[in-house]
Design goal:
About 30% of the residues lie in helices and about 25% in strands. By secondary structure, it is α/β, with parallel strands linked by helices. The protein binds oxa(dethia)-CoA (UT7).
Length: about 325
């Protein structure tokens, strides 16, 4: 009997939402003791988007999802699963996925959040791929949406200059004969959690007592250590993914990495010995949008990097947890 061609993943549509308010480095000079020159040379960031009161994680996620659905020519009722990666949900429950599903009118579609900090979207792609391969789903909406401006300490120059708000969405479709994710690698190291964290202020109080009026906790990061770990973990993960696929880096058209710092991206491509011009970067425009970085980059890289059907694209991310993930994708 002839063997059945394998089912895989195909990107059917992408969408983004970025708040219209642009905050430049010069604007931050008025807030903390910093300079445009320091931010630009140490991070590559020129500006970031900051949400208004109404631009919540749900709002931004819905807008990006609608654009992706339109591009995929799908209705919300065609979706079999909604996955949302975020560290800044509007509520712990209902999940952002349920809130986004309600706004889209995707009643009945299973929906859940997936949290792996800045690696969340690549984790999500890996999870989605399993559902598509098994035949348990045919159309999956994945959203990465972040409102990091609500969890940074705007008095802390070490962190507040780094982050931004935004959302990206991708529709992946089951396609027979398409490879989709050719290979992947993922991992986590909870023992190093303190290097980068955001505590839940509510968890300090006893559940039976009303929570004390605490100031909300903010992102805490040991920048230098995270820098080193990010470069090493992403390079090692990328190598493992390529090895599993038996694919050489020369055959990869484009690397799309997490967008935390242009120096991290430069160090990553140096370590991999990959041409810098084939590595996508938009960190100068948006800063670090955690789980939203990869889907926004996927949306923009298609045209900016002139990606063609069949091109091999390597996604690689690193974030709090610590977590890391990479996936080799056939465009
Ligand atoms: O999403 C994944 C997680 N995030 C990351 O991957 C980010 C990883 N880390 C980084 O990107 C970098 O470590 C930072 C951008 C956070 C910091 O860059 P750095 O080159 O490692 O600088 P540093 O922390 O060693 O600080 C150097 C100096 C310090 O002053 P002293 O102690 O040398 O006098 C800082 O206080 O720069 C100072 N500094 C600043 N100066 C002006 C720190 N932040 C600022 C600032 N403006 N915004």
């Amino acid at each position: 009997m002839p063997s059945q061609p394998e089912s895989g993943m195909q990107i059917a549509g992408t969408g983004i939402y970025l708040p219209s308010r642009i905050v430049t480095n010069h604007e931050l000079e008025k807030l903390v003791e910093t300079t445009d020159e320091w931010i630009l040379t140490r991070t590559g960031i020129k500006e970031r988007r900051i949400s208004s009161k109404t631009e919540t994680s749900t709002f931004m996620g819905v807008a990006a999802a609608k654009q992706a659905l339109a591009q995929a020519k799908l209705a919300p009722s065609d979706l079999d699963l909604i996955l949302v990666a975020t560290v800044t949900p509007d509520s712990f429950f209902p999940s952002s996925a349920c809130r986004i599903s309600a706004e889209l009118g995707a009643t009945g579609c299973p929906a859940f959040d997936l949290q792996a900090a800045c690696s969340g979207f690549v984790y999500g792609m890996i999870v989605a791929d399993q559902f598509l391969r098994s035949g348990a789903a045919r159309n999956i909406l994945m959203v990465g949406t972040e409102r990091l401006s609500s969890v940074v300490d705007w008095r802390d120059r070490n962190t507040c200059v780094l982050f931004g708000d935004g959302a990206g969405a991708v529709i992946v479709r089951q396609t027979v004969g398409s490879k989709g994710i050719i290979s992947f690698d993922w991992g986590a190291d909870g023992a190093s959690a303190d290097l980068l964290h955001l505590h839940n202020p509510q968890s300090r109080g006893l559940a039976t007592q009303p929570p004390a009026p605490l100031a909300p906790d903010c992102i805490v990061m040991a920048g230098k250590e995270i820098f080193k770990q990010a470069v090493n973990a992403m390079a090692d993960s990328a190598k493992r993914t390529l090895k599993k696929a038996g694919v050489k880096l020369d055959d990869v058209k484009c690397v799309i990495s997490h967008q935390a710092n242009i120096r991290i991206i430069d160090a990553l491509v140096d370590k991999l010995k990959f041409p810098r011009e084939r590595c996508f970067a938009n960190v100068h425009r948006y800063g670090n949008m955690s789980a939203a970085c990869i889907p926004v980059a996927l949306h923009e890289a298609g045209s900016e990097m002139k990606l063609q059907k069949g091109d091999k694209v390597l996604l690689v991310a690193f974030g709090g947890g610590l977590t890391w993930a990479s996936a080799l994708l056939e465009w």
